[in-house]
UniProtKB/TrEMBL annotation:
Species lineage: Eukaryota, Metazoa, Ecdysozoa, Nematoda, Chromadorea
Protein known as: leucine--tRNA ligase
Documented EC number(s): 6.1.1.4
Residue ranges of domain Methionyl/Leucyl tRNA synthetase in the record: 18-102
CC terms in the record's Gene Ontology section: cytosol
Any single biological process term in GO: leucyl-tRNA aminoacylation
Family membership: Belongs to the class-I aminoacyl-tRNA synthetase family.
Keyword list, A-Z: Aminoacyl-tRNA synthetase, ATP-binding, Ligase, Nucleotide-binding, Protein biosynthesis
Enzyme class of the recorded protein, top EC level: ligase
GO molecular function, one term: leucine-tRNA ligase activity
Amino acid sequence: MFENNVFKVDLNDYTKKYILAMFPYPSSSGLHVGHLRNYTIADAIARYYRLSGFNVLFPIGLDSFGLPAKQYAIKTNNHPKNFTLTNINSFKIQLKKLGFSFN
């Protein structure tokens, strides 16, 4: 949906809201139920404000650095760069299938 600009935001609109959910760290094979819980709550809030006439910016990003990436690299005996790019792609596919309204 976000590829078709369904949730495009006019940054000059004074009725804007900014909603940010936690960034997942792509140091596992996929999203878990904790991610889904938090994104579902944030998505419901973003949709509520959109339906209330607000111009909502609801971005998503990935936290690809730090201790979780290092621990996963050690656990899988793989360089962080290798699995991070693969897992980011996997996370994007999962998030897209779930239909969240990220910008």
